[in-house]
From TrEMBL:
Source species, domain of life: Bacteria
InterPro entries: AA_ABC_transptr_permease_3TM, ArtM/GltK/GlnP/TcyL/YhdX-like, MetI-like, MetI-like_sf
Record domain ABC transmembrane type-1: where: 54-264
Name of the protein: Amino acid ABC transporter
Lineage: Bacteria, Pseudomonadati, Pseudomonadota, Alphaproteobacteria, Hyphomicrobiales
Membrane topology: Multi-pass membrane protein
Gene Ontology molecular function: transmembrane transporter activity
Membrane-spanning segments: 21-39, 45-78, 99-124, 248-267
Amino acid sequence: MTGTSPRRGLRHRLADPDFPWWLAALAVAALGIALVLALDSSWRQIATILAAGLGTTLAVTVLAFAGAAALGLFVALAGRARNRVIRNGARLYVELVRGVPLLVLLFWIAFVGAPAFVTSWNAVTAPLSKAGLLAPLTVRDVSLMARAVIALVIAYSAFLAEIFRAGIEAVPEGQIEAAKALGLGSFARLRLIVLPQAVRTVLPPLANDLVSMVKDSSLVSVLGVADITQMGKVYASGSFRFFETYSVLAYLYLLVTVSVSLAARALERRLARGRRGREAQPLRSVPG
């Protein structure tokens, strides 16, 4: 009887209308491609070369998304400020940044913003440079990877600001009023009441933007940053094996993006279970 239980459980799981057949199909395809990469030396060589740039892609994505989330939250809070100048300044920032294509913004930060920053920095620190306490900064001192990360931070912060704004506004006003009645200050209300609920609300669109940033990080290759896309371009142009190179490149991107999506869904389900558990806790504490 115990031997048939696992089979019965698997049968019921497969019969579930919500069973993720799409994920099963992707897993089978991924395993098949991984088998080809493991057995074919030429394909394995391409995968090894591209994997060298995978760390750069992940580093750019993590740094840029963390910076964009922090800046986007700041802009979202500034957009709800009582001061009219701060509120309109935040709105202006969002509209300006969202209206510029990411590639144009990337070029502007890399070839206009970085030189302007170096010029301003040298002008401010000129007395220290004349005294021999600080060396003048050159444009080459600002790495291309840093410029790319800054461009992604600025570009995505505007979109994340709108996501955070929607999540904050979705918190019931009654809970905020109750927190005020309990004597909680504005920062305590934000930290204990507003942000925990807003994060649960905005988690799906945040995960969607993280997946988008993984893909948009490929744009840093136009600056010569040695990410996975740049490594693929260099190898394909030298070997003329475009089909194999870009097939492996798409495969590696899919592995990363699907993994991020699955992790975000797992976190979303965990937060939902935790919320249901907290909501049911007072009912269990009532004397029977």
